[in-house]
Amino acid sequence: AWDSTLGGFQLDLRVAEVLADRFNEKWRKGKGKGKDVDVRRHPKAMAKIRAQAKKVKEVLSANTNIPVHVEGVHDDIDLSTQLSRMELEALSQDLFERALVPLESVLEQAGLTLDDVAAVEVIGGGVRVPKVQQVLRERLGQLELSMHLNGDEAMAQGAAFYAANISTRFKVRPIGVTDMLPFGVGARIEEAVPEEGKEGGGGFLGVLGLKKKSTKDETDEEEGAEKWQRRATIFSPGHKLKSNRTISFNTTKDVALNLTYESSPLFPPGAQATIGLFDIRGVSELAKEHGSKSIYPPKVFLTFELDASGMVHLVKAEARLVEDTPATEGAAATAAEAAAIAAEINAETEKTEASSEDGEGEEDEGKGGKESVKEDEGAAAASTAEGDKNVTDSNSTSTDTTAAAPKAAPAPVVPKPTGKEGKREGGR
To answer: For 106-117, what is each residue's pLDDT tens digit?
Structure first.
């Protein structure tokens, strides 16, 4: 967390404004009497005043008062005045209050309170101002405000050590630095214009030459149709550097990707939010050539990399199509075949029970009855074998689940002796 508009330079400008007002007052009483004069209109004179203002701020950090004297500011007029620390603090009260905002913000982002903090080290030239230290101590309470490092050199020295750590040409002791992404990165994905429609146009697709110039009728038709579009956050604020992230979605069309920084109050005003524009082709061709092999549309995978410098890159774009298995394709047919086989077995079972009753009634009729029973048994054996063969053939194209259905038959099939095989058995 930080405030890019707050620092020691803002204190310099406040002092420079006071000195400019006092010089204008002296100028208007002398050579500029009756004229509309303002030293702020003269850059050379203001450069002298600002240089002196910086010295005044530094001296007031150690003293309570300072005499100010600048020779030949403008129009051969010198500036002589005095400025106290109390005056500087009164002029910059709003700046000192803003100094606490980054502190509160960083605690909120980390999910911590001051009770979870063991030590505080402050760096930077601006912290030498006594009022800044006072404001921080009042907020930190019992925590000590440490200033063991050189405030002007600490950040540059730390950056040099970190650069040596990530370099492959230096061997230094590892430094525990966790670098994070300050701004969130998001992606906007929408349908790309076909290759034959590339003629330029508006929007980020026009930058890629993907959006054709449409007529009024085409524009009305597009407005009436629902536009396919997806949005996703790739890396959230505070995400660690040197990491990858993959997103996926289903579509049958080629897509165009707009990779941008997400809106943030810390984002520099006027900076370009767009990171990159990408044209992803081949999805529609895959769906056209192999779409009949699957009931699902192709799934597109986009892999992004957040490198050590905090830059985001699209490193891989891949489309996958999962083909349907034979079990999936014939699921409905298999269920129907299983039901038909079960019904056939039940019907044949009823015939078997009726045939068994008829055979028992003929046992008392003598030899002719016994031969008839033998014929029934021979025909039953032949018919059972033939029935098993038919069941096996009908299930040869089914799944394993369906093929197990005949095993659940409650009884073998024993029809009456009407075939040739039954007659041969009876003759023997």
So the answer is: 888 888 898 899
